Amino acid sequence: MRIGDLSARTGASRRSLRYYEEQGLLVSSRSPSGQRHYEDEHVQRVRLVRAFLAAGMSSGTIAEMTPCMAEPNEDRARQALELMGRERARLSEAIDGLAAARDALDDLIEDNQAYLARSAEDGS
Q: What is the pTM of this model?
């Protein structure tokens, strides 16, 4: 498939796909005229890259994991496992922080609803 097709299937802009290639996160083959060509498995790769980026991983961190995903060996697997463990811990900490913020917001919502209910009763 061509870059436009990959873009349509993943929601990633053509510019983003070119950036992913520059960063070593995605590899395409080239036609004799220089056009990029992708396979179906690139759809999942792009979705994974986008999910990692959305979670706050840097393209450099993702690139460190990419060789292990594409061409695994024991050294790469060990390095990637360590990196993935650190990233998982970072994400877990972020999730815990978001959950705490949501709980605090829920408490404020309840307080506000109670206040409004009391105000309505007093005004009746």
A: 0.74
